[in-house]
Amino acid sequence: MWRGRGRRTRETHDKEEDVHVLGFEVPEQELRSELDSNNKHLFHFHNAYSDPLGWRKQSSFTVEQFSAENITRLVRETKHAKASVLVIDSLSWIVRHHNPVAICQQLHKLKKGGAIRTICCLLHMDLHQQGIVESICHLANTVITVTAVNNALYAEAKTTHRKKSGKVMQEEEFFTVMENLSLSIEKRPSQSGHAQVHSDAKVDPASNLTFNLRLSEVEREAKEKVALPFVFSQEKKSALLKKGQGSGRIIYEPDANDDFDEEDPDDDLDI
C-alpha cells in the first residue's frame, strides 16, 4: 500500500508540490519510513493520531480544528511553497464529529481558496449513511472506490473522473497484494481456477411452507373434471338455446276497472 504512496511522492517532487498530511489513522513515523529520502523534505505532517479529539492536548491537530481557516494557516506557514497538496488519511474521523453540511462547506472553501491545489481524502463508506457519502463524493472531481471481490482474492478499484467539460470517465482496475507486499494490477482478473459460479436456478416460494400447495396428477385430473356452478358446459348451452317444438303466448283481456288508455298504455302520464 505504501509503495503506491511512494509513486505519488515522485510525481509530487517533479511538480515541486508541498504535501500536508493530516494523520488520524497512521502515525507519522510509519509514513516517513516508506518515503524516498530525496522527497521527505516536501512532506509536512500534522499529528492527529496520538490525540485526535484533543482530550490530552497531545496532538498538533484535532478534529475540532478542522476548518478552512485553520488548514489554510498551516499551509501558508510553509516557506517557498509553489503549490500545496492536502492529504487527509481518514475523513471519517471528521465526519463522525462534525455536521456533514459544514464539512462540505469547508471542503468547498479549501477548494476555492487558492492555497491548496489538490485535496486527497480517504473515506470509509461503510461507516456512514449513503446520503452523506454521496454528498461528499459530489464535491470531488475524482472518486476511487475500493471493494473486495472474488472471495477477497482481488480488490476492485472503480475510478470515476469528471472533467471540466462535464464528461465523465470511468475505469475499473483489479489488484492484489503479493507476498512481498507489492501490488499486482490488471484490468480484468484472471478467471482460471477462481471462476465464480452464478446460479440461475429460480427460487421456489412454496419450498418452506408448512402446508402443501402442489397437486398430484390424480388430484389435478379430479380438479379438471369438477363442473363449476356458474360456467355452462357446451351441452347445457345447446339445450337452453335449442328451439322447442311447441310455442306459447300470453293472452290478456282488460276489464272495466283497468281504465286502459291507448295513448298511455303504461299509465305513467299524470295529466
From TrEMBL:
Alphabetical GO biological process terms: tRNA wobble uridine modification
Pathway per the UniProt entry: tRNA modification; 5-methoxycarbonylmethyl-2-thiouridine-tRNA biosynthesis
Region (Disordered): 242-271
Places the protein is found: Cytoplasm; Nucleus
CDD domains on file: Elp5
Molecular function GO labels: tRNA binding
UniProt-listed InterPro entries: Elp5 (IPR019519), P-loop_NTPase (IPR027417)
Highest taxon listed in the record's lineage: Eukaryota
Record's compositionally biased regions (Acidic residues): 255-271
Keywords attached to this entry: Cytoplasm, Nucleus, tRNA processing
Metal-binding listed as a keyword: no
GO cellular component: cytosol; elongator holoenzyme complex; nucleus
Family: Belongs to the ELP5 family.
Protein name, as recorded: Elongator complex protein 5
Organism of derivation: Astyanax mexicanus
